[in-house]
Specification:
single chain, alpha+beta, Pnp Oxidase, Chain A, disordered N terminus
Length: 249
Amino acid sequence: MDRRTMLMSLLAGSGMLAPQSLPAEESALAQEPSKPDPSLYIPRAHLVEERKFLHDFMDEFPFVDVVTVSPTLRITHIPTVLDRTAGSYGTILGHISAQNPQRVTFDGTHTAVIVFRGPHGYISPTWYEKTDVTPTWNFSVVHASGRPKAITDKRETRELLARLIAKFEKSVGSTSYDFSKLPDSYVSRMMEGIAPFHMDIEALEGKFKLGQERTVGDRRGVLEHLQEGAYRERSLYEVTDAFYRTVPK
């Protein structure tokens, strides 16, 4: 970019020069939305950029954190479905409660980060060939950034619900629940209670901190001890069962 184009773009971005006063090509550049800033720190050794790999991970771990910061910080936890074919990096679809104030950010102008989390765990130095190192924590995440837009069409909303339900009914091996056979009146009431959205992904960041930069011996030790499973988090069944015991009957 030459100095004149750079100066004109800066002036347009500051509001000192209206886009219509620029030549057509420069006006288009001035109005083009910038790519979102990185949302997390990723050392080069832990950076994963292969799109199919990241999409596969997002499909496998579709329960996400939807993070927005304007007008206030909000984080909502929801299941999602990924459309790999839409947009430059794919499109994420989901819904939150119609009562959730975060819905005001689904206007196509507010930036959101949607975080997909994989398994994680503590890594003991005793698992390495050389044990004079610090303990660490291994994990894997994918951050998808974009500008969510509300889905207002009832047909699109129903299709979204059908895709979500079909995906997760299949994941638990259920074959008897048929969303398509539910009465229209019931589905309409269901849709009134949600705020559906889609978000074209503008940036994908994959951080896989799994010790891949370590020696073959270190990696072998990590795998052996993780497989032993001496430490594990409680399953959803165990957490649910324990919590039920605290609920008055």
